[in-house]
Amino acid sequence: MRTIQSPDAASAVSADRLRLAVVGAGPAGLTLALLAAQLCPKAHITVFDARPLERDVAGDPRTLALGLGSVHLLQRLQAWDASVAQAILSVSVSQTPALLRHPWFGASQQPEVRLSAAEQGLDQLGAVLSYGQLVAPLQARWQARVALEPARLSSRFGAPVQGLKAQGDGVEVDAGIAEQFDLAVVAEGGVFAEQARKAVQHDYQQNAWVGTLTLAADSPLGAAYERFTRHGPVAVLPLAPKAGERRAALVWCVPQAEDDVAGMTDAQRLTVLQSLLPDSVGRLQAISPLKCFALGLNAERSLMDGRIARIGNAAQTLHPVAGQGLNLGLRDAYALVDALRAGGPIDAALRRVEWQRGPDRWSMIATTDFLARTFAWQWPGLPIARGLALAALQAATPLKKALARQMMFGRR
């Protein structure tokens, strides 16, 4: 096996001489590569991915929810196609009334937190689109940058990375040929069921069934819903209309021990979902075939392991209850590139990123983990306490605004 040596492996190498490997050409990896190409104009950057370049990713239907901060970042990179994204204009978080059997709650009362772009003085809170609709423009933008600057930017599609190894003051990346880099960023995470277990882990024993709903023509446009049920959360995220039909992405979480979704007909699934969701969603007209994913927490204690950094799902795979997994990954990417462009030794920059990302990262990990675990708890009065918390948050305008800002931009 031939080894290509770095021209400068000094421990104090800085961003203007950086040799950077990005492992994974998904949303987080391509965003980081484009940011580094833009903000570190002398850095040499190579993107590795097992997927062949000719494989079309545009049709990948997996749904992604992005906060407004993520949308702004992608717009800055000129990798955002607003024509295929559906703006999130409002968010409703509520609990099924059947869980609130207490005199404090009348028969018609439904504790709910309602967030809207109008309340925040914004055009949108975020956006929803498919994985393919996000990755295809990112990949096209990256390939265009590579074509413009082939001396310092390169792509290794169809080249799965078989190993990463600390080597002196850098990292050896083995993708058939072992190459030396100053820093390797791992951005390919996969799904919980397929991952090697990390330092912080928990299997929620839940499945997420995901697919697409067709809504009635009078359903509100741009409205997102999260409903806490006895079994787990159900999320409905607005999608751009197609052929004149209102559509929404569905994330339906159920305990594995009580999961009978696979045995239901489409009509039965629609009936159950209609009973779980608030009336404001509107009438459910149709449902697509559903895919099932096991849910769990799988997180590294640290983003950094020497000169190997991990971002996105490679650093933390979360329960989808808050819809923040990719947003965290994009904030990881921005913080890392921002620290590198500031100059100085790489190791000092990596330490700054670790400290900077800690509060945002761990607060989101703790929040989603707590919410996911509560659906397995059978404590008396827990639904009442959750309902009271929702009602109190709706009444506390400053706290509600702070929550909206955190969901859009992360903890600052």
Account of the protein in words:
It is a single chain. The chain is an alpha/beta fold. It has two domains: 3-62 and 132-198 and 296-371, 3-Layer(bba) Sandwich (FAD/NAD(P)-binding domain); 64-129 and 202-295 and 380-409, D-Amino Acid Oxidase, Chain A, domain 2. Helices cover 30% and strands 30% of the residues. The chain has helices at residues 27-39, 68-76, 131-148, 266-276, 325-341, 346-374, 382-395, 397-409, and strands at residues 3-4, 19-23, 44-49, 63-67, 86-88, 90-95, 112-116, 126-130, 153-157, 163-167, 170-174, 178-181, 183-186, 200-215, 223-228, 233-242, 245-255, 284-287, 291-299, 304-305, 308-310, 316-317. The radius of gyration is 22 Å and the shape is globular. The N and C termini lie far apart (46 Å). The relative contact order is 0.18.
